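Protocol step 4 of 6: record predicted structures for both targets in the notebook before any analysis. Target 1:
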Amino acid sequence: MNKSQSEVVRTAMEVLDERGLEAVSLRAIAERQGVRMNTVVWHVKSKGRLLELMADAIVAEVRVDDLPARWDHRAAELLERYRHALLAHRDGAAVVGGTYAPEPATLTLAETLIAALLDGGYRDQEAVWTCWNAIHFTLGLCREEQAISSAEPDRLTEALASGAFPALTRTLPHLLRPSFDDRFAYGLRRLLGTAGESPS
């Protein structure tokens, strides 16, 4: 990424953090930088390409050094760092989850995670599929955490008041108090505890 392109991405990240993903546009970046929109287009080509670069910039905040030696601890720590990078930016999970960006930081994260899984005894296909599952689980949970509003518990309680959903009503206390930290830790334990099992 050249300097001018980096400056466009940095400005886009400022807009994202201040106003959210819906406010990110080539025009908004041009206005903030005090340049013509054609100048922004010259550096990033399109909004789709801008979002790819933004996604990789978010993932670039995930440190891949100083990880634990044991494979499962290494994978869990890497995914924890990934989660923190997503949550560090307003709508960060939506940006990353909405792109397919085989960019340097994204590839480095995948390389490091898959290498940990291979060290744990996963076969090649298992390692790739588990990497995908772990990444998408983390993205999905972070998107929920960033999107949930204080009104959600009341809406859920009202929706279940009819008694038409007995399993949900029975487990309502757990649904109303989502501990994202606990859910994330639980999910990682489930995802990383199946080395050696053949995928169906």
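Target 2:
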Amino acid sequence: MIHLFKRFTGLFALLGLAGSVAAISTTPEVVFVHVGHLIEPATGAVQDNQLMRIENGRIHAVEPWHSPPDGTQVIDWSGKWVLPGLIDAHVHLADYLQTNDPAEPLKHSTEETAYLGARNARATLEAGFTSVHDVGSYRANGNIELRNAINRGDVLGPRINAVGGYITVPGGGGEVTGLPKGMKPLPEMRVGVARTPAEVTRKVNRMFALGADSIKLIATGAVLTEGTEPGQIELTGPMIAAAVKAATAHGSWVTSHAHGAAGIKLAILNGSRGIEHASLIDDAGIALAKARGTYLVMDIYNGDYIAEVGRRDGWSASILRKNDETTEAQRQGFTKAVRAGARVVFGTDAGVFPHGLQARQFSYMVRYGMTPLQAIQAATSTAAEFLGWGQDVGSLTPGHYADMIALDANPLEDVTTLEHVGHVIKGGVVVR
């Protein structure tokens, strides 16, 4: 898939993206925004009637409103509630949507999947998510090339921290399984398959050679992978430690898909920066995560979507069973983690459900123990820290990228207003 987006750049006009690319190239160097109510998530402070000065895509100053110089561009958000662009720390942009067919990933060409990724990226950005952690695509460099295309201005989408493909054991939670007899996954879908710590090291180095920003391990079985069980450990402690060591050598870090309580603790003890899902986390795992400063990325909306759509569309009985066994347990674990003061990050697993609907999770986070401010922090300042991007995103203070959203109502009072983002700016450019 390398250079795929470059070869097909001209065709993105057919998707209605050409106008957006033109807008990016003609952005003025200085833009002012008249902000009605500015929310700073880290503190919860609200400043009314502010003037924000944006220079070359970053916030230069925020001060009480006064008329900017004549002839400059002023964006009027004087009646809006404004906060940093949202961050979803668990998405799968560069793949086809989950269906009832285990062979679905094999039924779409590299080219088609690239177009789907472009569409998914745009939907995500227009929903107010200006940064994401793309935690894996079956074609190992799919999310990497999508990130590159966005960064070049070929397509419209969020800032992406891309992991490339999954580091997984043969037949494990990161594999395409349950295929009809005689059908095998493509080689580019197995780039991260490893059996030993030495192989893990080689595979991690391979992901960075492809251009990965961070690494995703499949430490336990998966809900949506046939033939695996969420509570089953798949990567050993030495394999996880090898991945962490290799990633550290590249100046990066590792996050681990881990549903089961034992797998969660194993990943934390061996240096994983984050735990994805954490569905069956126990009290000891929560205490360990808090003590080690490990981030918990818990997709507590996703289970309802799987239960509803999966039953409607005939997803396999084993997937529905595993979803039922983990959904409520994950939500109870989420509540305990919040109460314990663990670092909980907003991440949705978008790609299982349609991209652009991620904000539905905010109301679940409030229902299961967070205040609206805590839920917003999970998707801004805390998520930025998790990605190592705290100096660039997650805040609207000077020096940060001018990534921001505008709402008609106060999300600190009603978090569901985040499901209806009216306006989006990324890097000083109006997206909608």
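Step 5 preliminary note on target 2. The domain at 22-85+393-430 is CATH 2.30.40.10 (Urease, subunit C; domain 1). The longest helix spans residues 317-340.
Proceed to step 6 after PI sign-off.
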